[in-house]
Amino acid sequence: MSAERGVLMDGRAAADAVLAVVAEGAARFAAGYRRPHLAVIIVGENPASQFYVRSKVKAAERCGIDSILIELPAETREAALLERLGRLNADPGVDGILVQMPLPAQIDQQRAIEGISPAKDVDGLHPYNIGRLAADRPRFVACTPLGIMELLARYRVRTAGARAVVIGRSVLVGKPMALLLSRKHETGDASVTLCHSRSTDLASIAREADILVAAVGRAGSVGAEMVKDGAVVVDVGINRIADPASPKGYRITGDVDFEAVRPKASLITPVPGGVGLMTVAMLMRNTLQAAEWARGERHEGNPAA
User: Fold this and answer.
1) Which of 91, 119, 140, 172 has CB atoms 3.0–4.6 Å from 124's, for a disulfide?
2) Greatest CA separation for the chain
3) What is the pLDDT at residue 213?
């Protein structure tokens, strides 16, 4: 690991680089066929969800990927959502499908995920795609952990033989993150511990990490006492904290106590400006790959994973 301390892993610069490559690929694809196409579904009017889907639609426009935003009312029934997903699955003009989470209480999140064809599951959350990753034959990989791996590679973080600790066991981040770090691959081969709310003496486990990934969902929950000197710290958290001094009345912060941890870390991701931007960039890359796979221009496996 780097002897320096507190070097920021610039998610914006890395995301811009990924999006530029995607734009080139999308232009080549469009020249020989048509533009790749992403369908995004949002149910209800959750402000955070609306912000996220807008950022995804803007990124698609920037990359030369067509997108359709399907906005459904909050009272939409599960059967209606599944019927809409079925139509998108059957539409050869749609390459990727994303359902923005969270969903209203009357819709089962897992059923919605499984209602997306694995061939169009650009969010990488379908059990088929998670199973492929577990079998070391990844196709679509969840965008946030995939973006983290891209950041680690761009900052030349050596994962082989490293001790990695992932805090949080969600299917969205924690579990695929652990699989990616531990897989037999040039950006894997780490020894991984997956921690969660029931882990005993979490702080002592975290202090053993050369690479620490925090996906807790609780602001400032990873403090300096949990970080080894020289560790690489990746903050996945996006938390809205009330802040009367801010024009918006709130500020966005991560799961890591940034100011306390930065002096100890060799590399650290900021929030905002870190992992979140990489998540959107990886969604665009997955969408392009979905279009290429559907047309037979790409073979099995996801070398970028």
Assistant:
1) 140
2) 56
3) 98
From CA 205, how far away is CA 154, in angstroms rounded?
A: 26
Q: What is the mean pLDDT of residues 203-214?
A: 98
Write the CB contacts of 24 (distance below 8 Å, at least 6 apart in sequence). none
Q: Per the residue annotation, which of 100, 120, 175, 255 is the catalytic one?
A: 100
Phi, psi of 68 (to 5 degrees): -125, 130
Q: By the 8 A CB rule, do 148 and 192 touch?
A: no
Looking at the whole model, is its pTM more than 0.85? yes
Annotation says 120 is catalytic: no
- Rounded Cα distance between 172 and 163, Å, is 22
Beta bridge partners of 13: none
Range with the poorest average pLDDT among 166-175, 239-248, 275-284: 239-248
Q: Are 288 and 140 in contact (CB under 8 A)?
A: no
Q: Residue 58 catalytic?
A: no
Q: Which of 66, 123, 210, 257 is catalytic?
A: 123
Strands 239-242 and 163-167: unpaired
Pairing of strands 239-242, 250-253: antiparallel
List 222's β-bridge partners, or say none: 256
* pLDDT tens column, 86-144: 999 999 999 999 999 999 999 999 999 999 999 999 999 999 999 999 999 999 999 99
List of domains in the chain: 35-120 (3.40.50.10860), 142-278 (3.40.50.720)
pLDDT at 297 exceeding the cut of 80? no
CA 138 to chain centre: 15
Show the tokens assigned to 191.
Answer: 């020894």
Distance CA 70, CA 49 (A): 13
Asked if 184 is an active-site residue, the reply is: no
CB 283 within 8 A of CB 144: no
